[in-house]
Specification:
- This protein is α+β, with helices and mostly antiparallel strands and 70 residues long.
- It has a two-stranded antiparallel ribbon.
- The longest helix is centred in the C-terminal third of the chain and has 18 residues.
């Protein structure tokens, strides 16, 4: 999620403002999409989700294994 702030804009009514809008990262934003960044700065991509049927089967197998051990 990238957050930007607008700079150089004025409120206007009915006309397009001739001022250029420069998008900039906000002060608290952390860049995470740049390649070749250090690992402590870059976030890894989200893990791949398993499909619901596989998840149900895995949960059922874990439940059976716990029941057997008890």
């Amino acid at each position: 999620m990238t957050r930007f702030e607008k700079s150089g804009s004025k409120p206007f009514v009915g006309k397009i403002s001739p001022l250029q809008i420069n998008l900039r990262l906000q002060k608290f934003a952390v860049p995470t999409i740049f390649p070749n960044c250090s690992k402590y700065i870059s976030k890894s991509s989200n893990p791949v989700r398993e499909c619901p049927e596989q998840r149900r089967q895995r949960n059922e197998n874990e439940h059976i294994q716990r029941s057997i051990q008890e």
